[in-house]
Amino acid sequence: MNIIQAVFYTLLGVSFGSFINVLIDRLPEGKSILSPPSHCEACQRRLSALELIPIFSFIFLKGRCRTCHEKISPRSVWIEVLTGSLFLLTWLRFGQSWETVLFTFYGCLLIIIGGIDLENQKILNVIIYPAIGLGLIMSAILHIDQLWMILLGGAVGFGVLLLISLIAPGAMGMGDVKLVLFLGFIIGYPKIIITLFLAFVLGGLVAGVLLALKKIGKKDSIAFGPFLALAGIITMLYGTHILEWYLRRLGG
User: Fold this and answer.
1) Calpha distance 16→24 (Å, rounded)
2) pTM of structure
């Protein structure tokens, strides 16, 4: 595998992470993603080219605006690192292929959806509806021989979370139900089961830690979308390996 290509793709992912930060900031408020240019939210000063360098600008500025010294959200650098890691892991998994391009795009969508849900407790229809349509269309085009398994994946994921939302109102939002439908269409059956399992385990572990640290109370809720998004990315990359490992263990 060409190391230079892998490094280039990783740096491309870090750059995409900067744009994803803009989307996470502006889409929930209905703002334009093109204007105004990137600026400090506190003093409104337009950022210079050097201040727009992903990761390194945050480190160099010590996490504060150069002019007003207001703190810069550490989320910005974490999203850049996460997106760069997504691009690298996808390249290592699939190499130079259509799967790399498609899955990195899906992964970026999931990072955007998870980031917005984490901060705003909502999954935006303006993102999730086009994502569902795209996932179904691309799966039908690329995996027409597995279309029924794709549709079953969407139906199973959708049905499980919808049932939870009906049995325990408030435990699961309809945004989560729509998100898992998208995941089902891009992952298919039976790998959607892996996604659901991972999401519930990750969500339970994080909730348990936050409860132990008294960061949340027993009646408080946390966004489930980020856990679905992370579980979806893991399944996209390694779902086949996880499924093969499980079947080998099942077979003794």
Assistant:
1) 12
2) 0.92
C-beta of residue 192 within 8 angstroms of C-beta of residue 228: no
3-class SS shares of the chain: helix, strand, coil, % to 5: 70, 0, 25
Burial of 206 (0-12, 13-18, 19+ CB in 10 A): middle
Write down the pLDDT at residue 37: 78
Return d(Cα 109, Cα 103) in angstroms, integer. Answer: 10
Cβ contact 235:195 at 8 Å: yes
Q: What is the pLDDT of residues 29-41, one digit of tens each?
A: 988 887 877 877 7
What pLDDT does 157 receive?
95
Kindly tell me the sign of the dihedral angle through the C-alpha atoms of 102, 107, 108, 110. positive
pLDDT digits (tens, 9 = 90+) for 54-66: 888 888 877 787 8
pLDDT at residue 164 in the model: 92
Q: Which of 105, 79, 82 lies closest to 94 in space, CA to CA?
A: 105
Task: Give the residue among 205, 187, 17 at the shortest CA–CA distance from 115.
Answer: 17
Q: Do the Cβ atoms of 81 and 55 come closer than 8 Å?
A: yes
SS3 state of residue 217: coil
